[in-house]
Every structure is written in structure tokens, then in C-alpha cells.
Amino acid sequence: MALNEERLFAFLQRCVDDAAATIAAGTIVVGARLGLYRALAARPSASPEELAAATETAPRYVEEWLRGQAAGGYVDYDPETGRYSMTEEQAFALTNPEGPVYLPGTFQLALGALRAEPRITELFRTGGGMPWHEHDPEVFTGCEFSFRPGYAQNLVTEWMPQLTNAEAKLRAGAWVADVGCGHGASTVLMAQAYPESTFVGFDSHTGSIEVARKRAAEAGVADRVTFETGTAQDFPGGTYDLVTTFDCLHDLGDPLQAARRIRASLTTDGTWMIVEPVAGDSVADNLNPIGRLYYSFSTFLCVPNALAQEGGYALGAQAGERPLRQLAQDAGFNAFRKAAESPFNSVYEARP
């Protein structure tokens, strides 16, 4: 076998980049937890000793951390002064968990998911599943911090106005079910934006429901927001004006039954808002960095969770529009369309 050395070394370089990114994920989470990014961003520049003093950390660890961050482009280094700094863009993406972009949350989610590697390896052999609640707690918190910035940036200003009559109903006073709500980030954001409406969030993970209740109380919306344990297939029905599923439909073992349950719970002119990871309809469409990210998360989180449920069917995080449209039609919805899109999410509207 004759190897093409140019292609071989290009592949080796990719592997080095991936290995560096994998271990760097831990340093990014450390920097966020210890306030290293925030402290550095608050200064024009800092030496390792100054940053360590400001964060009550050990200088030698901070020095090594800063070197790695500079090598990865997460902070800047001035070789003449030996000092480190952050650009406005770096600070914007790394320091504010309440902002529209907060990258440490994604790395926290990845580290939490990777702790299940021995279990996932075994599932490859058996074909079984791993329920959501059996993952490391970092997965649940990482999901919140990873997804919430995108929702905060787009949900009220970009996505909701594109739905048919939904925003007018919310402003007048609607009854909303947020199915698969996790820690309630999407539910609370909607409640804050639409004070005349009432919201109930459902999730199968009891621990997440408990956190969601705390988040609602902290946000001052607990008088209009409740959270209950329930699955997408059996959440309490009613006549909801709007049912939302944020980045969770692809995690379900029986998405068709969930879609039917949602259809039965809507008013005659209600709306199902489906927010899913952005994806093309074919594998070839998704062979890009975002597709790689979602396929990898899906291998550790989404597919195992779906295969652990009744139904045993897994859409995966890169399902694309075509199977979602078919799902809505099979569940009895008469109208389905893509309403909006952001860099990481597609938003679909299904109506009776």
C-alpha cells in the first residue's frame, strides 16, 4: 500500500487539532468556573501573578492556563511584556452566561457527556439505550448554559414573530406548554416576554424540574409558570394555544406518539413550535463543523436516550426537515413549514 504523505500529514494535523481541542475543553470550563476569563477581561492586560491574585488562585497553574489559552486563540499574549489580554470578541463569547453567546456552556456539556464513554462503548455492542437521568449532572447544567444564550438571542425577537398569530395570542394572554423544558430556560424567557400568558413546563427528568422551579422563582415569574414531571407522550392535556419543543424532539423514542399527543392538546387554531438543531436532509448536507458537533453529541446523548425509551426509534440530532414534516403529517397536522432559522437552530411551525 502506497501512502500519500501529504494527505497523511494533513490528517495527522487534524488529529492533533482535535486532541488539543478535546483537552482544552477542560481548561475552558476551569477558566469559566474560577472567573479567570472575567477577571482578565476586566483589565487592559495582566500578568499570571496579577490574574492569580485577582481570582485567589495559584500563579503557576494560572501561568500554564494562560499559555494554553493563548495558543488556542482564546486570549492574546504580548511576548514583549509577557502580559495577557482579551479582545472584546473573546470576552463577549467567554464571560457572560446571560449573554447571547456563552461558549463555556457547550464545553461543559461535552465534558459531562464524555464521562459516559465506557457505557456508550458497551451500548455500541448491545444496541441498548441510556436514559437521560443516568448521565453526569454536568450534562443537565451544560445543556442549560449551552442552549439558553441562543434562545435569549432569538426566541422573542426573531423566532416567535415568524409564527402565525402566536405572538398576538401571547401578548393577549395564552396558555402554553413547553414540553421537554429541561431547566426551564425557554419557559422562563417566554414568561418574561409575555406577562399576560401562563406557562407550564414538562420534563421527564425530576431533577431538571426542581431546578426549573428555582429558575422561575429567581426570575420572578413563578406566579405564571409551573413545572411538572411528564413525558412528551403523556403530559397532561388541555387546550393549549401554543406547545413548544426546544431541541428535544430528536431525543424521543416515540416522536410520532409525542406529536399525536401534542396535536390532541392544542386548540383548533393552536400552534406547535418545533425548535431543532439546524440540519440538511441528507448526510452529505451535514458534513461540516456544525454537523460534526451535533452528530457527536447525538452519539453520546440523543440516540442513547431515545433508544432507552418505549418506541426504540431515534431521529438523531441531524434529522433535517423532511422527517419532521412527515412526522407532523402522520400525527394529523395539516400545515407544516419552516418559520425561521439561526446559525444553530431551525424553527418549524405545525398547525392543526
Distance between the termini: 60 Å
Rounded to an integer in angstroms, the radius of gyration calculated over CA atoms is 22 Å
Fill in the CATH topology of the largest domain.
Answer: Rossmann fold
Largest sheet: 7 strands, mixed
Q: Label the CATH architecture of the largest domain.
A: 3-Layer(aba) Sandwich
**Uncertain runs:** none
- Adjacency order of strands in the biggest sheet: 5-4-3-6-7-9-8
Q: What is the CATH class name of the largest domain?
A: Alpha Beta
Helix segment count? 14
Question: How much of the sequence is in beta strands?
Answer: 15-25%
Number of domains: 2
**Corresponding CATH superfamily of the largest domain:** Vaccinia Virus protein VP39
How many E strands? 9
In terms of structural class, how would the helical and strand content be classed? Answer: alpha/beta
Strand and helix order: HHHHEEHHHHHEHEHEEHEHHEE
**Shape assignment:** globular
Please give the share of residues in helix.
Answer: 40-55%
Overall pLDDT, averaged?
96
Protein name: SAM-dependent methyltransferase
Organism: Microlunatus parietis
GO molecular function, one term: methyltransferase activity
Domain Methyltransferase: 174-279
